[in-house]
Amino acid sequence: MGFQTTLRLLLPLVCTGLVFATRTRSTKLRVPPPFPCPQLPPRNETADSVHSLRPQDVRVVLAMGDSITAGFGMMGQQGTLLKDLQEYRGQSWSIGGDVQAYTVASLIRHYNPNVVGASLGTHSVEVCWGYLCPSNHEPAQDKLNSAQTGAMMYDLVSGITSSQVDYVIGQLRAMEQV
User: Fold this and answer.
1) What CA–CA distance (Å, rounded) separates 91 from 70?
2) Mind listing the pLDDT tens digit for each residue in 120-143?
3) Is 35 left (phi over 0), alpha (psi -120 to 50) or beta?
4) pTM
5) Which of 1, 43, 136, 170 has its CA at a distance of 20 to 30 angstroms from the CA of residue 157?
6) Residues near 98 by beta carbon (within 8 Å), at least 6 away in sequence
7) What confidence tens digit (pLDDT) does each residue in 40-92 have?
């Protein structure tokens, strides 16, 4: 499976999530309408190639990245420094799993309610500073979202303390459902 094939399959889901994740003037996300696509009928066999893959075949979602994937500053200025330094991981377009959030993970959950890995809720920022990228994740909320605000490409696989890949691998090994 090539990168272009994967991108072609995921792009419609990503675009759908971006279209529905709109904000009102009060900086609160608008509650989207119910997802209009019907459930697909179950099939008797497992997909044997990416060309026959359906959203209901996805059992695990995970993400690595920077402040965008972590949802940092997603709600704009909230009036206090403490509130401004929050990551809205459950609303993150790519991996958020909050109820009524239109995200790629939520769209997949529409077809497979047992999908695991989506991040939940809001918590204080997890910051990387250059090569120093401490692993201060909150596994109960982050789930399989290893993104850290300020992360660079090298933080995905290396770092002075640990990497985003190390965090995801550790979480995957600890999950009984995977």
Assistant:
1) 9
2) 999 988 888 777 777 788 999 999
3) beta
4) 0.74
5) 1
6) 90, 91, 120, 121
7) 888 888 888 999 888 889 999 999 999 999 999 888 888 787 778 899 999 99
Q: Say if residues 156 and 163 touch (Cβ distance below 8 Å).
A: yes
Please, what's the b/e burial string for 129-167 (b: 16 or more CB within 10 A of its CB; e: otherwise)? eeeebeeebeeebbbbbbbbbbbeeebbeebeebbbebb
Strand partners, 86: 124
Helix locations, 21-103, DSSP H: 67-70, 81-84
List, in sequence order, every residue forming a beta bridge with 145; answer none if it has no partner: 63
Tokens of 92: 């993150």
The H or E element that residue 123 is part of is: strand 123-124
Q: Of the candidates 105, 87, 91, 108, which has an alpha carbon nearest to the alpha carbon of residue 151?
A: 87
